[in-house]
Amino acid sequence: MKKWLKKVGAGIVLPAMLALTACGGFTARLEDVPQYEDAEPFRFVAYMGPPPANSGSGEFATNPDYMTLENYQIMADCGFNYTTGMYENTKELYLKGLDLAQQVGMKYYVRDYSFTDGCIEGIIAAANSEEEAQAMLEQQQVSIKARFEEYSEYESFAGVLAVDEPAAARYPAIKVMNAWYEENFPETEFQVNLLPTYASLNQLFGTADTDKTYKDDYVGYFNEYVDTAVLSYDHYALSKIGTTNRLSNTYLQNLEIFANLAKESGKPFYVFLLTLGHWDYRTMEYYRDIAWQVYTAMAYGAVGAQTFTYWTNLSNGESENITNALVDRDGTRMPAWYAMQEVISEVRAFEDVYMNFEWQGVLPVVADEYESNAMTDLLLTPLESHPRIRSASTTADAIIGAFKDGEGRDGFMLSNITDPADNTGADITIEFNDAEKVVVYKKGRTLIYPLEDGKATFNLGSGEGWFIIPI
């Protein structure tokens, strides 16, 4: 995550200083807690921010104007530092969004798909080769560039979400548009959000009759050929079929694929969070529903999390089965909004620590070695051991993300991977090599745990993630 660091000279921070606590009846010293430079904040992106008037469909087609300073302030109060406009669809509304975001201290991503005089996503959708994309760009670039130059006048302008979930056939056009964008607007992001592992071969490659693979020919090829500066994808792991809650078997594998690619390429990667109840996906209600998604992603080194969605979709077709997102269609904050706020607040308390570490790998720890866990069984490159960990056991399945800072110090993200619907805690016992105590960042607090013969037990609630540094 080094490329994300914001250098501040000698300035250092001590996360959650006032919450520094010693556990186990021994004296904690402030000098025991490693100190880190300010870093680029973790990106929490409110995808689908407050919509403008009359932007819905069907029974919601005549919605009032929710694109107000008050609603943007509520979004910022939740802890989001970025948002993506989805219902805006005109230059004037995007400029309004940029202005509102700037007033509340947020950054703003635009989309570019509804402009008749030329648009980025229109070229991506229509061009079937680099040559076709280049020809279309030559005809349209004057109007596209003029529009983005207006956006760039705002400090809040973060870049463009150029296309969501493209098939590989769109890659030549994306490559052309990415190169053009980086040449003209290098200070902001050209972001492409990729499909998940459970996408069909038809979705990925346009045909089921292929031996191409998701890892190498969809994600790996995108990174090498298109070569965007950041990586992003969505994978919604929490579903419910009838009365049965389900976890996606390839959820951790998907994180692993992107984490390894980010490590190899030096690029940051983002994930999308399920925050909208729709189709067979669950409605998010509790802290553990949100925390589970955020902390499993952080165990794999993710540096950004985007909501799908912040505002509840202003549609509800028969097959959509939409319940609610963080904010309901009328602007009411739902229980998930408060859960999201709690999780973001926790991450903010130790993000300067986390963002100063580089991801190394993930060590899965299962409660019963004879009982299968499909998510960990399908991992491709799990760590089988770590030189700093002599042994690890748990009462419920967990993962341990391994990290290292610039001074060679080890850090670990512990994540309880049991289904949040089960509300099951995980007591993770780790015996460390060469450590007397451990600094623990959990639930917005900084604690110091003593080690007894190098060992400590960490009692993680459902969905929780703790970042720890043995010292």
UniProtKB/TrEMBL annotation:
Name the source's superkingdom: Bacteria
Q: What SUPFAM superfamilies does this protein map onto?
A: (Trans)glycosidases (SSF51445)
* Record key words, sorted: Signal
Q: Which residues form the signal peptide?
A: 1-21
InterPro entries xref list: GH
Which protein, by its recorded name, is this? Glycoside hydrolase family 42 N-terminal domain-containing protein
Write down the species: Candidatus Borkfalkia excrementigallinarum
